[in-house]
Protein 1
Amino acid sequence: MPKDITYKFCFGPWNLSEGQDPYGPPTRPVQTFDWKLGQLKRLGFDAMMFHDDDAVPDVDGKSDAQLARESKELRKKLKDAGVVAEIVAPRLWFDPRTIDGGYTSNDPKCRQFAIRRSLRCIDIANHLGCNLIVLWLAREGSYIRESKNARRSMDYLVAAIDKMLAHDKRIRIAIEPKPNEPMDVAYVPTIGHALALASLTRDPKRVGCLIESAHALLAGLDPADEIDFACSFGKLWSLHLNDQNGLKFDQDKPFGSANLRVAFNQVLALERNRYGARGEYVAFDVHPFRTTKVEHWTAHLENSRRTFLKLVEKARTYPEAQANKLIADRNYAALDQLVLEHLMGR
Ligand code: GLO
Ligand code: MG
């Protein structure tokens, strides 16, 4: 097992959320971006991930010149804080024009809006000195199967990604699959779908993926296998570690919170693929529990990183020779117990 990767960590301003859910309002006072950046710096994280409108609020109401000015101001603020922007993602799921999907809306004007907004997201990324765009295809799917044409939707998705790739030759796009929520059924539910879609674009080399643990679990998959699959194509360009207790709403729990062994296997997969060696970041797409008091607001992020680093130790001290002997003997009962005892420690 390689022992030399020093991981770099990241989160987004939305990961210091205020506690609102579909059933109730915030439980903590709304905080400014500067406060959130201050927390990121205080915790010693290396990078921040952005939605386009985290970087430039009300992006649609602003001119290109304003957009350039505000993103450059942000770049300076980040530089002064010693933090970089890891990714920028177009937040396509808030606008009234994307109610029925962005790139795959049935309304051509809405599809055009989604593309225009994505190109401006690329401009923001450029101003921030960041060349990785994340596409979480939130509303690209259907509530009822008959409402949209899935075959045509694939063409729309490819056309939208092609426009983004043509807009700027240096950007790369990482697709973040999720099988459901907010949609009943999403068009790009897994890494296999994301990479197959990438292969249809004008420049597949510049289209990769982002794995989120909870999204893989919601698709009924093991996130560690998704990691190995993506890495075997050289396509894992970003990562949202978190956890999820079974098939229910997207929980964004702290990493390892629901299933430590599944978390361990993700770390083992990252280690064997040398994730991070090409500058990739470990981001935690986690949320505080709604019950969290103001004074404990950052605990879910600190805990996720702490668990991650402890599991890196577990991966690096995993008794591989012993495990290999048990594998050769097809003694999986003993292998199972070896893993459990390794995780529990002495
Ligand atoms: C929601 C997603 C979301 C994205 C983020 C970046 O389920 O995980 O948090 O990661 O918007 O595109
Ligand atoms: Mg995510």
Protein 2
Amino acid sequence: MINPFPDLNKIAIAPSILSANFASLGKDISAVERGGADLIHVDVMDGHFVPNITIGPQVVKDIKQIAKQPLDVHLMISNPDKYIETFIDAGAAMVSVHIEAVPHLSRTLTLIQSLGAKAGVVLNPSTPAGSLEEVASTLDFVLVMSVNPGFGGQAFIPHSLSKIKKVKEVLSNAGVKAPIEIDGGIDETNIQKVVTAGANIIVSGNAIFGKSDPESSTLALRKAALA
Ligand code: DX5
Ligand code: ZN
């Protein structure tokens, strides 16, 4: 099996399908893949941990049939342990859980890994980078939220830049080389800043699917990141 995990030395673009047209999801996913998407970011919300309800395992299973790129499943749900196996069976290559939603984080990360997926820890904007210290050596990647989770199209929270740097520091102090993913309000105007701060997996929803041509907006985003 090919390891689907993004190369630490490259920028991975992960379009969030939350802002796609769900009536033509397959078409939208193919468009971002033609535009060079490295991952497909799937936002799972339960109306409990966050105030919105989105995608369940069946949709992930159907996407898996048509997507060429690995599925990066971001669980914004209470009690994620209950659903992890179902999402991995459905085709998730990466699964991230919120530190705020999980009482036994290292057990949850081990569960994800034991089922063959990469395990990510997500931090809400108000959660300090230091909370990663005790699990740094167990995780495969960190997801820094740059908006409060729940909805696409929100404005980037500026202090997320210093948060990325702090997370990088926590990982390096623990001797861990793991990708840092950033999620929320990323567009052509700020992508370079998050990359410079140390993020290497870039999630973007509205700036890609909110435009008329998701293929060219994916290309434009990468171009802006490397400019
Ligand atoms: C927010 C989600 C994000 C969001 C990104 O709760 O986790 O993935 O959809 O979308 P934009 O880029 O529109 O903020
Ligand atoms: Zn997300």
Protein 3
Amino acid sequence: MNLKGRDLVSIRDLTREEIFYILEKAEEMIPFAKGEKKTKALEGKILATLFFEPSTRTKLSFETAMHRLGGNVIGFSEPAMTSIKKGETLADTIRMVDSYSDIIVIRHSLEGAARLAAEFAESPVINAGDGAGRHPTQCLLDLFTILREKGRIEGLKIALVGDLKYGRTVHSLAYALALLGAELIFISPETLKMPKEIVRDCQELGAEPKSFTNLERAIKDVDVIYVTRIQKERFPDPTEYNRVVGSYRIDIDLLKHAKEDLVVMHPLPRVNEIDPEVDKTKHALYFKQAFYGVPVRMALLSLLLGADVK
Ligand code: CP
């Protein structure tokens, strides 16, 4: 399978076979991601990271991935310090960066920004999150986490909880889980339900997602609970945010209603959705999940750049 030169703007850009291929490669990257093995597979290559929105995990794990592969990184996370501040368009910025680098990672507040970047760049473009739209590399690492910890995805009962309207990670993940045959449960406040078009896409893939507002009742027999932050920055009206903030909180008492081997995931950052007491339990997987961003992004960078990692 050859992914050299491809863009990754949406998880829909990948087939089921391509997703599993990337996840297999990610497994091979683990000793490199931990620094136990060394490689110069991407020596001489330059990754450009263009972060128009804040990030900790995505930006740093992409940078770590590139460094672990022997490549170099340029980029910005303060667009106010670039010529965008002087009125330069995104298209012109991308044209410039394309001539300085071999692969581009972009995070932007506007849905569609990564697709536009991919149209203007010759090099591969990876979407690191576009507004409330998509977050395909988070999706890949979420799938990798589930596969690694549960041994399969097909047939698992997976609950996506929280802000399903504005949360881009769950938009990508719902589609991918439906594609890979998981049983989907959506738990959210009435006003933050999964967008209809994503529910429809999941149904077209053969899934029959069930929607609930009550977490306690729905959690009983799930295998994975994927919790999300209420995306305060995407609410047009702060009153509406105040109405739903704190709707769900995973704590030790709630976990008493859950299966013994339930795993709790979260793309992070968390605010108050998961009690820190849960961190010490065998259910907590979110920090390991964040680490898996490194091998998954290493796999992706090496595949899109056509490098063989040995
Ligand atoms: N999960 C995630 O995208 O985290 P960051 O916003 O810190 O990159």
